[in-house]
Structures are given as C-alpha cells and as structure tokens.
C-alpha cells in the first residue's frame, strides 16, 4: 500500500511598503504570495507557485517596486486577498497542511490582514501548531545566537541563492532549500 506524501507548504509574502511611514490611510497589504510545496518524506521540492494579490487600501510605492520588482499595474491584475486565501485552502490544502516561513512576519501579516478584511485565516488553528518558524529552527540547528536573514542562512548552509530576493516565489523556493537542509541534518521538527 502506497503512503501519501507528507507535504509542507513553504510560504513567503511580499507586502506594500514605503521608505518611511505609509501615506495616510495606507496599510501594509500582501501583494504576492510565494509558495513552494515540499515533500518531507522524499525530501524534495515538488512545486512552486505565485499568487498576485490586488491591494485594497494601499498602492505599490516606487520603493516597493525597487525592492520587490512588483509594480502597481502588475498587482492590479491579481486576485483579492479573500480569493488568494480561498486558493491557498482549496488548491494547496492550507487548512490541513503544516506550513513554514522565514520568521514570524508572514504568519502575523496573514493574521492581521485576515482580521482587517474579515476573511477567514487560511491556515489551520491554532497557528502555533501548524506554523514553523524556519528561521528559529535554522538558528538553533546551527548554534547561532542571532537568527540570520534568509540570504545569509543560505551562505551559512553552503546553498546558492536562486532568483530575485524579495520576490515571494523565489524566496519561498530558497526557504524550502533551507528546510531540506534542516531535514537532512535531522533538525526539522517532527510535527511540522
């Protein structure tokens, strides 16, 4: 009898941002969700995805475009945040599947935006049970006092950076490489 693969969603979000304070009435909103699916049993990345999200209360600044490469025109073609959450649940099993991100920002941003938009949080509850902070696991596994940025962690692990930094799809792919490194070291939590 063939066993179902143990899948993990690795997620990285990009949000509207500014060089300084947001303009009046603007808030940080998710504009891109990068997702890499990892087969934990086979220890490999099996797919990568990108969901563009149309912001409702803010616009993509020049600073944000410089950082992420995303433009207002590009994200205008995206889906609503509610639709993005539906896609995560229906197409990527976000309600049942464990997930990881680099740090706590992504989990907190989803929680904030879900509350603000009146959209059901797409990941299982409680969030602490379904979410793994890969940055904290990496720092502990490597005996680091400070939790490194993702690009620095790749250098520490001897892994190449693939793609563009601050592009959700590429960052999720690179974080997944770090998850695989932690799996190989036996450092990834068994519950994740």
From TrEMBL:
Keyword Membrane included in the entry's annotation: no
Keywords from the UniProt entry: Exonuclease, Hydrolase, Nuclease
A Pfam family per the record: RNase_T
Domain of life: Bacteria
Coiled-coil intervals: none
Domain Exonuclease: 7-188
UniProt xrefs under SUPFAM superfamilies: Ribonuclease H-like (SSF53098)
Alphabetized GO MF terms: 3'-5'-RNA exonuclease activity; nucleic acid binding
SMART domains in the record: EXOIII
InterPro entries listed in its UniProt record: 3-5_Exoribonuclease, ERI-1_3'hExo-like, Ribonucl_H, RNaseH-like_sf, RNaseH_sf
Designated name of the protein: DNA polymerase III
